[in-house]
Design goal:
The protein is of the alpha+beta class. It is built from four helices and two strands. It is elongated, with a radius of gyration of 21 Å. One of its GO terms (molecular function) is ATP binding. Its EC number is 2.7.1.67.
């Protein structure tokens, strides 16, 4: 099986990065990790999008849907340190030290 992620960023197709973000979201859902925000590929049209003048002057179609990714909002803001502490290893004393140096009661910086 050929996996493009093994070859680094040079193999990415320009202007298609949204596909990898959506794919990461789907893999995250299947593995039930819940560390990537839910992302879907959608099509939107807007007068504020960039359309080349050549494209709009010949067809009479001024705005057509463009594909992109849309991240659904996270239901509740969670402190990154709390999220990290949930997944850290038993040897993660560094996170405890960082939390004790913070002024916030949960160890978060504002």
């Amino acid at each position: 099986m050929l996996c493009f992620c093994c070859f680094g960023r040079t193999c990415l197709i320009p202007n298609n990065g949204y596909l990898s973000v959506a794919a990461a979201s789907l893999v995250d859902e299947k593995l039930e990790l819940h560390i990537v925000s839910k992302t879907r590929v959608i099509k939107l049209a807007s007068s504020s999008f960039f359309y080349k003048r050549l494209w709009t002057s010949y067809g009479g179609i001024e705005h057509w849907p463009k594909e992109g990714s849309y991240q659904l909002p996270v239901p509740a803001n969670v402190c990154p340190r709390l999220c990290h502490s949930k997944y850290r290893s038993s040897q993660g004393q560094l996170a405890d030290q960082a939390r004790s140096r913070s002024n916030h009661p949960l160890g978060c910086h504002r």
